[in-house]
Amino acid sequence: MKIKVELFGSSRDFSDKDHLELEVEDKALMRDLRNEIIKYLDKNFKGNINFIKIVKSSVFCSENNNIVSDNYKITKNEKIAIIPPIGGG
Amino acid sequence: MLHAKVIDIKEKKLTLSEAEKFISSSDFGASIYFTGTVRNQNNNKNVIGITYDSHDKLVLKSFKEIYNEADEKLKIKDKSVFIEHAKGYLNLEEISIIIAVACKHRDQAYVLSRYIIEEIKKKTPIWKKEHYADNQSEWLKGSPLVNEKI
């Protein structure tokens, strides 16, 4: 299934668009999506270490605006947001 | 009473007058206004501006959670709180955040104001990209948000 990952903060450097579209298997968990993002970075940014660090230190937000763990089951066509380390104010 | 908003700086600037209007009440004897502004130096670099990015829905959710937690943790029931955070590009000295609080007494107002800004730093998904005098720019490192739910 195709998943739209909305980009925020430092992850905006992953694409010229404001999101990524990645393919994951049906019944994929959030950790599978995290791995898919890393694969995307390997392919498109030669495994840029700083980008991969961002993905590893990020959490994810489900379509209904909850921060979810790596065990979260992604539903079909769900829109997910990546939340890199924060620092407002 | 809570007013919480993310303001797109292309549409309007943050102003203290709106905060004052919101928290002003004869129920309260103490008011504190906190503003965060863009400063010209960070990590020995000459900053000329900051772009703020925001996950608006999560930001508003976290502002409401912080407000409600203040009830439980600080036991300050009677209060008026105004929180606005900017998103978009801000020049030096422009206001990025306003936290205005009104309480019955000054002790409560000082504690509540400090509590809110510290919790926002820990919990609210907002990001800063600094722009420098040498035309470079950089997202600030930030702190990882902790997983809350499964």
What are its keywords?
heterodimer, A: 89 residues, alpha+beta, Ubiquitin-like (UB roll), five-stranded mixed beta sheet, globular, B: 150 residues, Aldehyde Oxidoreductase, domain 3, eight-stranded mixed beta sheet, 3 helices, 8 strands, 30% helix
Apparent shape of chain B: globular
- Total beta-strand segments of chain B: 8
Rg measurement of chain B, Å: 16 Å
What is the residue-averaged pLDDT of chain A?
95
| CATH topology descriptor of chain B | Aldehyde Oxidoreductase, domain 3
Described by strand count, sense and barrel closure, the largest sheet of chain A is:
5 strands, mixed
Distance between the termini of chain B: 31 Å
Mean pLDDT across residues of chain B: 95
What is the share of helical residues of chain B? 25-40%
Pattern of helices and strands of chain B = EHEEEHEEHEE
Counting H and I runs of at least 4 residues, what is the number of helices of chain B? 3
Proper CATH architecture of chain B? Alpha-Beta Complex
Which percent bin holds the helix content of chain A? 25-40%
CATH C-level class of chain A is Alpha Beta
CATH class of chain B: Alpha Beta
CATH fold-level assignment of chain A: Ubiquitin-like (UB roll)
Structural class of chain A: alpha+beta
CATH evolutionary superfamily of chain A: Beta-grasp domain
Main sheet properties of chain B = 8 strands, mixed
Strand content of chain B: 35-45%
